[in-house]
Amino acid sequence: MADSETADAVVVGAGMAGLVAGLELAESGADVTVLEKAPTPGGSMRISNGIVWTYGSFEELRERSPDGEPALQRLLVDRIEDDLAWLESVEADLVTPEFDVPGPGKTIDPPAFTDHMVERIEAAGGSVRLEMPLDSLAVEDGTVVGVEATGPDGKRVTIDADAVVVATGGFQGNEQLVEQHVTDATENLYLRSNPWSTGDGLLAATEVGGKTTAGLGTFYGHTMAAPPADISPDRFADATQYYGFAAVALDRTGERFTDESESALEETLTQDIATETDGRAYYVFDETIADRVFGSKTADEIFETAGELGGRTALVDSLSELGATLDEWGVDGDRAIETVEAFNDAIEGDERLHPSRENERIPIDEPPYRLVEVQPSITFTMGGVAVDESMAVKRRSASPSGMAIGADDAADGTVEGLFAAGSDVGAIHRRRYVGGLAVGLVSGRIAARSALERIGNA
């Protein structure tokens, strides 16, 4: 028989969104329990670079990510500065990012920030319980009234609550869901996140009638040096090939397959490698790109690290040597030479390419040439649970199709008592990234305030 407990609110997940929601609830006087399935709190935030940022205006963000949900994107832009100030008010240690970001932003030290947030939640009377996964949501008459979970001792626990916030970090760790929505070639897709975000919030929400968004097949990630590279989580950033959008990317046939330059954050290229080339590509760049800084390192430094980690790399003095190396790697080297030469001719002649190259129209013609075999990685999924502007989960049976004409003007029903935050919320990003930790911060606070309103009315 399950043990029975009560709380005002339960937050599922102790990453950025969950800890923010938990602290907002606890310091507002609510009795809150934060559940975390991992043995340590922090989620994917804990292994991130810690930069909390988004774009400086709604117009800039929409230009950057036009397929995301406009109302949620506006919330992100409108609230980010106030929410960064709130982090300072709760004595989180924030510093200026070491490189420029295109809008408001601060950097946290993720492990220290995690510990600080947990300590404040507990000091305010809340609890953060580790190794305690969510099994299901408890529902009465269509209203979420708590959760069922399993404790570290294996015992089932039922927690009755007036509000539940799911903030479990997306479904990138769920191989079945990734195969269903993203790519069949999961064996060629690194998991560049914590291993515990397996779609628990999404699955629980849909089981009680929650609606999902479009864009379930889109994700944020980067390429990293492909196997046999040996990459531990603490080397994710070192292994990331941030310069990819400026390189020429080839598939196994030696041809280009997308506009590498679509996004300067490399996430669109990463998605295309996952979905169009079965998870393998080959970056080619030259001396001009080698000296450029991407993030905090030059492309050449990133290239050298890929080799140090055991990835396949080559430094060659001519395109003929490049082709010979690719032949050894199982790629059509002659076709690769033709592709690079055609690319250079089109750039120098100011001609259009197919696939197009809208940005970074610079020829790859200054030897020595660098060649790196890369594999895509997934950090978080962009599609997920559909929410309204209060982060209340929309009810599928009470919502119109998003494909219908005039659907944006129609009212959606919600699942009473259920809210979502962070990467469990879908469609703030869609294909293009707008700031993961910022989404966690802003949506976590909104979800908590909405839960507080419900607690006050319960």
How would you describe the overall organization of this protein?
With 458 residues, the chain is an alpha/beta fold. It folds into 2 domains: 295 residues, FAD/NAD(P)-binding domain; 156 residues, Succinate dehydrogenase/fumarate reductase flavoprotein, catalytic domain (Flavocytochrome C3, Chain A, domain 1, Alpha-Beta Complex). The protein is built from 13 helices and 22 strands. The strands form 6 sheets. A 6-stranded mixed beta sheet has the order 6-3-2-10-22-21. Strand 7 and strand 8 form a beta hairpin. Helix 1 runs parallel beside helix 13. The radius of gyration is 23 Å and the shape is elongated. It starts with a strand and ends with a helix.
Q: What labels would you give this structure?
A:
458 residues, alpha/beta, Flavocytochrome C3, Chain A, domain 1, 2 domains, 6-stranded mixed beta sheet, elongated
Question: Which helices and strands appear, and what pairs or packs with what?
Answer:
Layout lengths: L2 E4 L2 E4 L3 H12 L4 E4 L15 E3 L4 H7 L5 H20 L15 E3 L2 H14 L3 E3 L4 E7 L2 E8 L5 E5 L2 E4 L8 H7 L8 E2 L8 H8 L11 E2 L2 E3 L10 H4 L8 E3 L16 H10 L4 E5 L1 H4 L2 E2 L2 E2 H10 L4 E4 L2 H10 L4 H16 L20 E10 L1 E2 L10 E3 L19 E7 L15 H22 L1
Parallel strand pairs: 1-9, 2-3, 2-10, 3-6, 10-22, 11-19
Antiparallel strand pairs: 4-5, 7-8, 8-9, 12-20, 13-19, 14-15, 15-19, 16-17, 18-19, 21-22
Helix pairs in contact: 1-4, 1-13, 3-13, 11-12
